Amino acid sequence: MGALNEEHFIKEIENGVELDCLDLGFEDQPETVAIEDAVKVLLQGLGEDINREGLKKTPLRVAKALREGTKGYKQKAKDIVQSALFPEVGLDDAVGHAGGAGGLVIVRDLDLFSFCESCLVPFQVKCQIGYVPSGQRVVGLSKLSRVADVFAKRLQDPQRLADEICSALHLGIKPAGVAVILQCSHIQFPNTELPFLESNRHGWVKALVHSGSGVFENELADVWDDFLSLLKFRGINVDKTLMKDPKKQCWCPSQFSSSAEVTGRPNTGMLTAVTSILTSLGENPLRKELAGTPSHFVKWLMNFQNANLETKLNGFACGRMNPLKQNGEVSHNKRMYTELNLSFCSQCEHHLLPFYGVVHIGYYAEEITPVIKSRLQSIVRFYGFKLQVQERLTRQIAETASSFLGGDVVVVVEANHTCMISRGIEKFGSSTATIAVLGLFSTDPAARAKFLQNIPNPASGGSGF
Question: PANTHER family this protein is in (predicted)?
Fold first, then answer.
């Protein structure tokens, strides 16, 4: 396939085909402008230069992502359902089990995302919906997904999200019953107080919630067993014992994280800015569930404030190891060592949305010491805890590590970006890998291949969300 013609490429851009998210028509609206102004205050509170090249368009990008991610406030589930109700002979309450001859209908594994109402950090949802038709009515199956998305595209809590989806479908379809199960995953707040040697620990808060109406109101009813069995034979295992007392689950990490984890003092201007964002999204900042949201979001952001390199790294460039020979060959006393799966969490500077993953580092040395491992973990943590792009993160880790490893370093960063799922593109399950090579690794394909072969396959289901 031939290369893209540059003249054609420029013409496409001039005609409005942009390499950014689609303009949904609210770019110049007062609400968008208000969010942009608020984001500028947040960036300045982090010690950032809002005129820096990578941040110039961040306020607009964040505003568009937030408004797109909460567009469900302006949508009505009732309109979606009523336009897709179809008659189906034989579906009658008096015939067969529950809803009649048609029995139970399930749509499985709907991928959704929502912004957490407690901290404004996105969380991901696996949604399972079932309903029992009645009254000789069925609904277009795609509408189940669309109704779920209407309520997901609002500031949410898992249990309320399940209840709202269930209630809307029950009122719209008027079935014998509706069941909704949500499997939710929320990124854990990074703990900057943990020792560097524990930086490979990275957690997720998970919640399993459900809601039922009609024949599903009784959690012990046989129809629930039917529902769960139809999920299980497709590999979706839901433990019924975990579905009890869902409203008592502690969900958002901001609700039980220590105040000691906050870096820096509370900034009144930043708190006011987040309150302005909530108002611009159409929410009531005085709603009790949102009372702590500004402080929780600022707490999250302050983990990524701009910091002084020399202060944080404490002279890691000192104690440089013996470099390679002048001809670029590795000393016979050196061998390849690897540090794999060093976890990190960072914040995309383009959208102020988290990205997370693991770092793999390879290097040649005469021996490995605990000090080297500690330094590498510290470097990963330092460069992760700031506004970043993955390409820069990879390069910075490699260059800093090479300053004391002798210049012969390879770094691979594997990451999942929430901006890939919480914006218009919504590419669930995608991941990104970047590589930086220095010294021998930049000239010797065999050395690179040897290192890359050491990178383990990710464990099934171990991606977090």
Answer: GTP CYCLOHYDROLASE 1 (PTHR11109:SF7), GTP CYCLOHYDROLASE I (PTHR11109)
